[in-house]
Amino acid sequence: MNRGIRTEIYLRLRERIPKPETELTYINPFELLIAVILSAQATDISVNKATAKLYPLANTPEGILELGVEKLKSHIKTIGLYNTKAENIIKTCRILLDEHDGEVPRTRQELEALPGVGRKTANVILNTAFGEPTIAVDTHIFRVSNRTGMAKGKTPLEVERRLVRLTPDEFRKDAHHWLILHGRYTCKARKPECPNCIIRDLCEYRQKTTEADF
Fold first, then answer.
1. Residue 212 pLDDT > 90
2. Is residue 90 over pLDDT 90?
3. In whole angstroms, what is the distance from residue 167 CA to residue 183 CA?
4. Are residues 45 and 120 located together in one domain of the fold?
5. With bands split at pLDDT 50, 70 and 90, how would you rate the model's confidence at 121?
6. pLDDT (tens digit, 9 = 90+) per residue, 144-160?
7. With contact defined as beta carbons under 8 Å apart, do 186 and 197 qualify?
């Protein structure tokens, strides 16, 4: 896929969603951090339901620590891997207070040093909370990038590096959200909705679905 086609793809995605945003509910970087930690192998809808009850009680590192691990677990038990996530969140809150004055750090190295925070989560925080032009590659973006031919790769890191390198500067800040939303609602895993896709004529996927498939 050449640069001109990639540019046209982003132009169409931007025309459809001029100002894309995360579907996680949050009001500050700390709330976003906790939500993203919880979102691993979970849906944004399930995370939002849990944090809607959690955040009114505790939405700061101090508040979460005061709540304690067992009460925290009770608020997030509807989310997969909640035991591990609760332990990581408690540890993260302690580190934020001890090493960062209770604030969410703004560097990748410091973010990835937090329990439960990997490269993808760090990229989401840097991009969504702090406006950095990072591209977090989740299962949706990995699928869309390989299917369309925008950035083929065998691993999320490989796809991320190619997307960052090949995405024109003007689109890089919002590329993560455009691609994840496209993968979530159109370029679905089991049956992509190719007839409704605004970039179907630019996509390299050879097994496109048709109206007859639905």
1. no
2. yes
3. 17
4. yes
5. very high
6. 999 999 999 999 999 99
7. yes
138 is catalytic: yes
Q: Are residues 164 and 84 in the same domain?
A: no
Q: Which of 138, 169, 188, 201 is catalytic?
A: 138
Supply 15's token pair: 């025309």
Flag whether pLDDT at 214 surpasses 90.
no
Residue 39: closest CA among 30, 29, 48: 48
Amino acid, single-letter form, for residue 76? I
Q: How far apart (Å, rounded) are the C-alpha atoms in residues 185 and 17?
A: 13
Average pLDDT over residues 202-207: 96
Place of tokens 């001109």: 4
Residues 141 and 191 in one domain: yes
Domain of 142, CATH number, reads 1.10.1670.10
The amino acid that residue 28 corresponds to is N
Look up 174 and say whether it is catalytic: no
Burial pattern 114-127, b for ≥16 Cβ within 10 A else e, equals bbbbebbbbbbbbb
For residues 169 and 7, the answer to whether their CB atoms sit within 8 Å is no
Helical packing angle, 169-185 and 156-166, nearest 10°? 140
Q: Catalytic one among 98, 120, 174, 191?
A: 120
DSSP-based three-state secondary structure for 180:
helix
End-to-end CA distance of the chain: 28
Note whether 116 and 85 are within 8 A (CB): yes
